[in-house]
Specification:
disordered N terminus; 9-stranded antiparallel sheet; Jelly Rolls; mainly beta
């Protein structure tokens, strides 16, 4: 659903003393030869099959004309069709051990509803790296970042077919490369090594792409690059695997290059030493190069360090982003965008690996927060009242001002009441004038937490443009170096006035606003939103599971989210929010109302003016494992 918190852009970091060094700014025409750039997009499975047809094996095939080899022959019109069994499988021997960056599956109509992609070093012991539980066919790209997926064999193992036929694949593509080994002679120690960043735009622009050996000769285009979110305080780093002696660094930038940045080294990935920064003259020239996005190209920074540096980790820390005409004379800044990060020197080790991701928590659930609203007034030791113009600004084109008033927020007979009120032109807040007031409360600074079951029993108003919500927001949302959607948002329940359904959603980098990861649920057996229902999410280190009346309505795993959409940003504190909004982007997107208020028709205005439009909450509970 639409965002609620405007993005805040971070200003440039404080100046750092210039360290002497040299850099060559190379025009796109002199980028590395095509042969060097080609390796990143080589289909290693097709190459292995061409070299050795026996590299491909499967549990079986429907007939001779749909043999397993046809998924690897590079012909998009031929296909493998398996034996008619849920547990059918197909695998390829790549011929050497590589770090797998991504796997692309092109399904025919007989696709897998549930299946697993696995990797093995020996063809016997398998490790899953992508699990599909609700496949819909088509073309699926499963990125491996930030998992350690290194091996010689890759297998698709079926769990459940979507049709009575077998699994049918037009193509099964595997991309990746051999990690750079330890070297006593000067080499690119970063090639196919683990890379990291604080934030990135989406799965197709993860840090893994900066070490895959590829960049377009023109230094233009979207392929094989890391792209940060739109913030100056962003970095990307490489693990060389062992302490190394570093003599130079090559940065192949897309047009959204860093105007100013630091190159840093570290022994432990925590304490960093700056070894290079562009000169003031270089920064000035880069800053002055303002163009329209479609006309702009990237840069190749060939940096020779004044003195060889030692360390295991190397980082580019951005300080200032390039500006673009948007359109001229107005300018805008986007994220940093880097095709390739080469680190030249001696040392290193091919054993560098991504750390294991968190698993499920142990323990049993215990209640850590509860409010049944039986007090005479809202318990402000548990809840913060949010006001427009104070704790938040106006968002999403909504028509109400949130105020701290018993007319809008009160307890009554063991229930929390959030009520909408109408008075034309009566409310001044945050520099604006509002015709509506309503209530919003949250637990920020009172109860911020990580992981658990979060639930509430609620009865909702039904009517076009009434937008009650029960949700969680990352506690770091107000940090300008993070902001939304990097903070993460978990919408446990939203309703925009329709009586028969509600929605749930996750928002983060690469999956926010209308591009969220969400689901709609329809009440069974004629149920309605204006009846009492329990809405809940179970938030764990590995998944988000949403429920209505104990019925699972959405499940999103960390594995699938990071493989196909973007960064999992639900590993830090969030807080609970309850609110009743009026009109705005989400309702308007459905009801198409533009007057008298966006998303809020006159019939709904009349109901608010008549009184009684309110969201009711019986109780709120958070349970955590202890």
């Amino acid at each position: 659903m639409p965002s609620r918190t405007p993005r805040t852009l971070l200003t440039a970091l404080a100046a750092v003393a210039l360290l002497a060094g040299t850099t060559a700014l190379t025009a796109p025409a002199t980028a590395a030869p095509a042969a060097a750039a080609a390796t990143w997009d080589t289909d290693r499975a097709a190459t292995a099959y061409a070299a050795n047809p026996a590299a491909v094996t499967a549990s079986g095939s429907e007939k001779a004309g749909t043999a397993a080899a046809l998924a690897f022959d590079g012909n998009g019109a031929t296909r493998w069709s398996s034996n008619f069994a849920d547990d059918a499988w197909i695998r390829v021997d790549l011929g050497s051990t590589i770090r797998v960056d991504r796997v692309v599956l092109d399904w025919e109509a007989a696709y897998g509803k549930r299946y697993v992609l696995e990797v093995s070093r020996n063809g016997t012991d398998w490790t899953p790296f992508y699990t599909e539980t609700a496949g819909t066919g088509g073309s699926v790209t499963a990125h491996t970042y930030p998992q350690e997926v290194t091996g010689r064999y890759v297998r698709l193992r079926g769990l459940e077919r979507a049709t009575p036929y077998g699994y049918s694949l037009y193509s099964f593509k595997v991309y990746g490369g051999e990690p750079a080994a330890a070297s006593t002679t000067r080499t690119n120690l970063a090639l196919n090594h683990p890379a990291y960043s604080n934030l990135y735009q989406h799965a197709g622009n993860s840090p893994a792409f900066v070490t895959d050996g590829g960049w377009p000769a023109s230094l233009k285009g979207d392929s094989t690059r890391w792209s940060s979110d739109w913030n100056a305080d962003r970095w990307v780093s490489v693990d060389l695997g062992a302490t190394s002696t570093i003599s130079s660094v090559d940065l192949y930038w897309e047009s959204a290059y860093a105007v100013d940045y630091l190159l840093q080294v570290s022994d432990d990935n925590r304490t960093w030493r700056t070894v290079y920064q562009p000169s003031a003259a270089e920064v000035s020239a880069r800053r002055a190069n303002v163009q329209a996005p479609g006309d702009a190209a990237g840069l190749h920074d060939a940096v020779t360090l004044p003195t060889p540096a030692t360390g295991r980790y190397v980082r580019m820390l951005g300080k200032e982003r390039r500006s673009f005409y948007n359109p001229a004379p107005s300018t805008a800044q986007f994220g940093y965008s880097l095709y390739e990060f080469q680190v030249w020197g001696t040392g290193g080790s091919a054993s560098a690996s991504y750390p294991a991701l968190p698993g499920e928590q142990s323990g049993s659930y215990q209640t850590t927060f509860f409010d049944d609203f039986t007090g005479a007034a809202l318990d402000r030791s548990k809840w913060r009242v949010v006001r427009t113009g104070s704790e938040m600004g106006s968002v999403n084109g909504e028509s109400q001002a949130y105020v701290d008033s018993a007319d809008n927020i009160r307890t009554d007979n063991g229930e929390l009441i959030l009520r909408a009120k109408y008075c034309k032109g009566c409310t001044k807040a945050g520099g604006g004038t509002y015709d509506f007031t309503s209530g919003r409360i949250d637990t920020h600074t009172k109860f911020d937490f990580s992981y658990g079951k979060v639930s509430a029993r609620m009865k909702l108003p039904v009517g076009d443009g009434f937008w009650p919500a029960f949700w969680l927001l990352g506690s770091n949302v107000d940090d300008p170096s993070v902001s939304w959607p990097a903070s993460g948002e978990t919408d446990i329940m939203e309703n925009i006035g329709y009586g028969d359904w509600t929605s749930s959603a996750l928002h983060g980098p690469g999956y926010s606003a209308d591009g969220n990861i969400g689901a709609r649920q329809t009440y069974p057996n004629g149920g309605r939103a204006d009846q009492w229902h329990t809405y809940a999410v179970e938030w764990t280190p590995t998944a988000m599971r949403f429920y209505v009346d104990d019925r699972l309505v959405q499940e999103t795993t960390r594995n699938k989210l990071e493989s196909t959409r973007g960064q999992w940003v639900f590993d830090h504190n969030q807080y609970v929010i309850l609110n009743l909004a009026l009109g705005g982007a989400y309702p308007a997107g459905w009801n198409q109302v533009t007057s008298p208020y966006w998303g809020l028709p006159q019939s709904s205005v009349d109901r608010i003016a008549g009184g009684g439009v309110q969201a009711e909450v019986d109780w709120v509970r958070v349970e955590q494992k202890r």
